[in-house]
Each structure stands twice: as structure tokens, then as C-alpha cells.
Amino acid sequence: MPEVDKSKLAKAMEIIDRAASLIEKKNYENDAEVMRELTILDNRLKELAGNDEVSVYDFEAYWSYQDLEESAVQALMPKPEKKGISDKEIADIVKNINNSPEKTDYWLEILEKETGLENISDYIFWPDEIGLEINASIEEIIHKIFQDRKK
What we know:
Layout: H1 9-24, H2 32-49, H3 68-76, H4 87-96, H5 104-115, H6 120-125, H7 138-148
Helix pairs in contact: 1-2, 1-3, 4-7
């Protein structure tokens, strides 16, 4: 399971916090100096993370749903790619997805890529949306994922 380079956490936190503060300003889009700084911060975060899909705009109001360190960990997670992981690894991810809130989006992307199920979050968080009981067991959810996945 991937981990982030903890030596980069402080810098990622600094970038995200500064960008969120700038974005919070009224009419930031009409302020050329602020937009220039946001572009620099966005490029720095992309470079630090080694992922051109991460953006400071992903964390513009991070404090409303997670703390700054969780946001930095999320930003530094490697780009999710399909690798052909085993059924056991898929099951382990499903069983442990709620153990690291800052990595939930990452693991959901991995599961989506590995199973081909674009609504994978429904299976885990709203199983009644995919034909199971709302309080379905984790084993029932895993079985349903394996049954419905696209090969």
C-alpha cells in the first residue's frame, strides 16, 4: 500500500494553507497578483507531489471537511493507476477504507480503476443503492463488488 514521503508534508501543508487563504479572499479571480501567486503555488504542489492532476484548488476549503495534514497527505498520494491487484488486495482495501480518511478518495479511485465500477462508493457507503441492505456486512459488499465488476 502506498505511503507518502513524510519529509514533504510540511511544505505541502504550507502550500495548501497559503493557497486556501488566497482563494478565500473575495474576488480573487479578478486580482492578477493573487492569481499569479496561486499559479505558482499550484505548480509547486504539482511538482512536490509528482502528480500533475493534483491542484491547490482541490483544497480551497479543506478546513470544512478535514485538517491541514490530512489534506497534505491526500495531495502527496501517488496518482492512482490500475495495476491488476489481487482479489485479496481489493478486499483488504474495502475492509480498511475508513481507517485513513485522508486516503479514502485515493482508495476509491484505485477500486474504481481495478473493478471498473464507477459507482464504487455506493457499494461501500450506500449499499442499498446497489441492491443490498443499508447495513450489509463488509463480506456481502465485497461479494457484490466481485459479482458486478467489469473484467
